[in-house]
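Field reference: sequence -> structure
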Amino acid sequence: GFHVYLGLLGLVTAWVSRAQERSADVGAMRVVGCPTPADAARLHGGDRADLAPPRWYRWYAHHPAPFERMEFLARHRP
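Structure field:
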């Protein structure tokens, strides 16, 4: 019942948040240019292991993983 609802709501909320982050990334890319994978790794600042977290974690993450952001930006270069 309620727990299923909360789980589904979490998935939807995370998906919407990641979509907004991708849109912001594209806007930033248009302003400052397209970053390289080295830029993403340098700016990441976290543990290198979380550059590509496990898929189950990404389902609920509110931000795309750094490697997902770079792949998305590479497909949407102006």
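Note: The mean pLDDT is 78.
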